Amino acid sequence: MERRSFLRASVLGGTAAAFTGSLWQGAALAAPAQNAPSPYGPLQPADANGIHLPAGFTSQVVARSRQTVPGTSYRWHSAPDGGACFADGTGWIYVSNSETISLLGGGASMIRFDAAGRVTGASRLLSGTNINCAGGKTPWNTWLSCEETDLGRVWETYPFGGRAVARPAMGRFTHEAAAADPVRRAIYLTEDKGDGCFYRFVPHTWGDLSSGTLQVMVAGTAASGSFTWATVPDPDGFPIATRNQVSGAKRFDGGEGCYYADDTVWFTTKGDNRVWQVNLASGTYELAYDDDLVSPGTAPLKGVDNVTGSTAGDLYVAEDGGSMQICMITPDDKVSVFLRIDGQGSSEITGPAFNPAGNRLYFSSQRGTSGDRLGTGGITYCVTGPFRT
């Protein structure tokens, strides 16, 4: 079976976090991606929402910060950030973080959709937390909402019912994103610091994040090579930060989005505009994208941030700033622009996530046209069209 067919079957069957085998690994991004025309063709003129899309794709506004989600009585949160989709019967749920302080509504919310993509409900998942930036979906259908503060926590939230719970065993540091690996039964974690690290949390019991071991990647200073994991002695991160507890811990310049599929985890670093690929089966790491190594012409992807994958095996990387684009990196090491938003240069694109069928892409512009740093002008969108399968 081709990797694309396998990936599509896996997503349609449940969760992208449940991939096993070597199909992604066998066709992994073996070198930094290079410029190429988009497989969807050139971008068209901006639509009514100010979004440039390839032919055949359309956009719609799903929700606006501080306004009631259409069809519900729920007021959408400010500063929408990391997100994920969950299958819900014949429909689905889109979960989104709020990257603001607790007094202004930080935490996470959800919107429920029916099989036709119509909104059927919206509600709060998490309140009273601070700067909930990105996070990750688990194979048991919970959402890990990560606080991007010096002693930030991971909060496990329950889109299908249940009270959110802090998971301090996963470490207290400037959390960004998380990605679950059901093969090694580990959760990978990025750290948004200029000298941050890349971690994994190995729970004592898979599916129970209340206890376990926090480890950090140990490797050389090169952009590729082999690595090992070392246990962090004090996950509490005080008085010594977790990133400074293990000699030889590899440093990354501002860890951001994180995505796992079949023995490979990708994560982004905004300080150097890189996408890293960690080959878990072989214990090696390399660059999937580096804006300094792109040719011919100018690198299209700047301000790398949240990342997700499609049913075709393409990576979709959102920009924080840059040209307000979502770019795609294909399995054959090609990078191109998928969409661009006009008139929102003081914002960032956040929370890209595909619905279970892989034909709708949800994402947000955190500050929208207003550019308000509090995120009061945030806009959450959905793009529908002939995504590759």
UniProtKB/TrEMBL annotation:
It comes from the Bacteria. Pfam families: PhoX. InterPro entries: 6-blade_b-propeller_TolB-like, PhoX, TAT_signal. It comes from Actinomadura namibiensis. Gene3D superfamilies: TolB, C-terminal domain. Keywords: Signal. This is Secreted PhoX family phosphatase. Residues 1-30 form the signal peptide. PANTHER family: DUF839 DOMAIN-CONTAINING PROTEIN (PTHR35399:SF2), SLR8030 PROTEIN (PTHR35399).
